[in-house]
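STRUCTURE:
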């Protein structure tokens, strides 16, 4: 599975009032790197009560030795509601992402503001790819999606995933609008 997670959790603000800085999440520009990842379905019964922590994915060589393919954190409170976990194992050659904020509007009278983002994925590979677009709604935990052009799933208090297919030697665009309230 390919994953585009340009922002990550570094900007997550757990407060109820959204952070109003217009350049938050925009400057510096989001990276274009997309990762090749293993996707692991979560079995709620089997994982209930497991503590958060690091996980390593290994590959066994023909001689019996082990090599680390990738590392990630699982079961963090921020992503406990996700149906799947992903473990990045490298950069996806020939596939890049671009994140652009197209609109930002603040309405103090209604105590809300909105942001519109366009995610563009370019695929130079000779075959189509499936991709998870992971977005962090980092301004606060009081948000709702007003629109999304691809199916969205809540993965945590401030995290969603949008899934799309990108044709061979083509591109795909996914648009979403988030509204924060206070």
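SEQUENCE:
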């Amino acid at each position: 599975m390919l994953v585009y997670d340009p922002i990550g959790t570094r900007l997550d603000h757990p407060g109820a009032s959204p952070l109003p800085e217009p350049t938050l999440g925009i400057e510096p520009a989001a990276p274009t790197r997309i990762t090749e990842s293993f996707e692991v379905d979560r079995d709620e019964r089997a994982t209930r009560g497991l503590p958060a922590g690091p996980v390593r994915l290994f590959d066994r060589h023909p001689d019996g030795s082990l090599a680390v393919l990738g590392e990630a954190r699982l079961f963090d409170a921020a992503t406990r509601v996700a149906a799947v976990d992903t473990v990045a194992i490298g950069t996806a050659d020939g596939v890049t992402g671009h994140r652009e904020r197209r609109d930002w509007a603040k309405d103090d009278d209604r105590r809300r503001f909105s942001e519109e983002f366009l995610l563009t994925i370019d695929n130079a590979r000779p075959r189509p790819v499936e991709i998870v677009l992971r977005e962090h709604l980092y301004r606060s935990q009081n948000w709702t999606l007003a629109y999304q052009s691809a199916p969205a799933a809540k993965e945590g208090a401030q995290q969603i995933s949008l899934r799309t297919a990108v044709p061979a030697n083509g591109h795909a665009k996914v648009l979403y609008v988030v509204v924060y309230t206070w």
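REMARK: Residues 44-47 form the longest helix (4 residues).
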